[in-house]
UniProtKB/TrEMBL annotation:
Residues 277-306 are annotated as: Disordered. Pfam families: PHAF1 (PF03676). This is Uncharacterized protein. It comes from Penicillium salamii. InterPro entries: PHAF1 (IPR005373), PHAF1/BROMI (IPR039156). PANTHER family: PHAGOSOME ASSEMBLY FACTOR 1 (PTHR13465:SF2), UPF0183 PROTEIN (PTHR13465). One of its GO terms (cellular component) is trans-Golgi network. GO terms for biological process: Golgi to plasma membrane protein transport. Belongs to the PHAF1 family.
Length: 501
């Protein structure tokens, strides 16, 4: 596919999207990677130092598109068409450019004229905004805005005047065809420009949920609240909050609230069993393989084993067909759940007013015993396997940790909260050492990892403590533990994964 013949057709939805391009970074990138012939080049730009607070930019150079997402939630905020000749734009069955529907009528290398936009496509508009030229260019830019969409027209600076009728001016020879088009949420570009990445999104993260009822698809998760003592609360987009209690919430409860999982997986990995704590539980891995509709998880170099063959034997609708321990993978919701026989979850947070959980009695019923929340951090090894999940940990009335908090802040607050938990300062310092995980080597544990109940050493109460700081090295992630919590942390301090147990 050459640059001169790329003619992807895309319907314009003002304020919403372009074709299937809408919603979240995970949704868009998964779909785009599923069509490599249509989208042969994908460029992703983000801040290596702070990828969760700065915007993420996805550029499709062969298609003339640039997409901008906010960092914390990874919602699509702005679609820019930079080369009209590379995409066949359609609005209400009307071509934005003449030609493009047949080989005899190739797309123009220029954008639409003002007359075509004004008379044929979007109709009358309020006056737009004129941007003077930079340096000594003879052309400035006139931005013509409609609700949810705007066009940029080069305009001779010498012809511009505040007193001119903009319709007459843009219809004259002083104006050139549009060089760019933008799609955004808002009444006009000047109104939305300053709050582009901070305003409340109007639509769900998944395009599959747009216009669908709660009965047909599971409601979208907005945020997880980690309350301690094995208690979590799931804040949903439209429905009421869903409580989850580790060791009590059943497999059936999870299916009822979030729908069937995208995959069910069991894996027994012995490669790190040397780190099993004496008297503690095994170390478990959650590789999350499998596929989703229009999905592409090729960014993960999965370690091959025979457990993939076991997937066909699991009947999602029949809990009795599940193995004794397995992971339910919810790629579109951004989390995994470990299903096992009930275990006693971690203790309550100090000064939270919540009582420690009771010891779990022996039971044959399978329950949720661990929840893995994925950060989908750009640059991380499992990037784009799950959509980004946001969470918060309210320690007390004055302190609250979030999924965007740098780990040094998280570590400082948690160490202060748990200061009286350790037998001695020496024990606390010893357990501050992280475990290093290299996801890039084929013979090392890959994907989502949870080291639960096992470490090089244990405290007198059987829990691990977290640490601070990270070393240089091989670009690895590091695992830091606190009672009931396990953080996977990147070198830049971003939390890639949080496991609650």
């Amino acid at each position: 596919m050459t640059s001169s013949t790329t003619t992807t057709q895309a319907q314009i939805f003002p304020g919403k999207g372009l074709g299937f391009i809408s919603a979240s970074l995970h949704n868009v990138l998964t779909r785009v990677k599923s069509y490599p012939q249509t989208y042969p080049a994908i460029d992703l730009a983000y801040s290596p130092a702070d990828p969760l607070r700065n915007p993420v930019i996805l550029q499709l150079p062969s298609n003339g598109l640039r997409l901008r997402f906010d960092g914390p939630d990874q919602r699509l905020r702005l679609i820019e068409v930079l080369e009209f000749s590379r995409v066949n734009l359609v609005y209400k069955n009307q071509d934005v450019l003449k030609g493009g529907k047949s080989a005899e009528q190739p797309l123009s290398t220029q954008g639409p004229s003002f007359r075509h936009v004004y008379n044929r496509l979007f109709g009358p508009s309020y006056p737009g905004e004129y941007v003077p030229p930079a340096e000594k260019s003879p052309y400035g830019t006139y931005v013509l805005s409609y609700p949810g969409v705007a066009f940029s027209f080069p305009l001779q600076h010498s012809a511009w005047s505040d007193q001119c009728d903009f319709v007459a001016l843009l219809s004259s020879s002083a104006a050139l065809p549009a060089t760019a088009m933008s799609i955004f949420q808002g009444a006009s570009w000047p109104e939305v420009r300053d709050k582009l990445f901070t305003q409340q999104p109007q639509y769900p993260r998944s395009s599959a949920l747009i216009g669908k009822s709660r009965e047909s698809l599971a409601d979208e998760i907005e945020e997880w609240q980690v309350l301690g003592a094995g208690r979590l609360e799931v804040i949903r987009r439209t429905g009421s909050a869903v409580p989850i209690t580790l060791g009590a919430t059943s497999f059936q409860d999870l299916i009822a609230d979030f729908g069937p999982p995208d995959a069910i997986y069991r894996k027994n990995d012995r490669r790190i069993s040397i780190h099993r704590a004496t008297g503690g539980n095994d170390i478990h891995l959650s590789p999350s393989p499998g596929s989703i509709q229009d999905g592409d998880h090729s960014s993960n170099n999965s370690v091959t084993d025979d457990s993939d063959e076991e997937l066909a034997a699991f009947n999602i609708g029949d809990p009795t067909s599940l193995p004794a321990e397995c992971f339910l993978n919810y790629f579109h919701h951004g989390f995994d759940a470990f299903i096992s026989h009930p275990t006693t979850p971690g203790p309550a947070f100090p000064n939270s007013g919540v009582h420690d959980p009771a010891v779990a009695p022996p039971s044959s019923q399978l329950t949720v015993t661990k929840i893995i929340l994925h950060g989908n951090v750009p640059g991380s090894y499992p990037f784009n396997r799950h959509r980004r999940t946001r969470w918060m940990i309210p320690l007390d009335d004055n302190n609250c940790l979030t999924s965007e908090s740098p780990y040094n802040e998280i570590s400082e607050q948690l160490r202060t909260a748990w200061r009286g938990y350790y037998a001695s300062p020496t024990e606390e310092r010893a357990l501050r050492r992280p475990m290093v995980l290299n996801r890039g080597w084929g013979d090392s544990p890959e994907s989502s990892v949870e080291f639960l109940g096992g470490w090089e050493e244990t405290t007198s109460k059987g829990h691990r403590a977290g640490g601070e700081g990270q070393d240089g090295g091989l670009g690895n992630t590091e695992m830091f533990g606190f009672p009931g919590l396990l953080f996977e942390v990147l070198k830049n301090g971003a939390v890639s994964c949080l496991t609650v147990y």
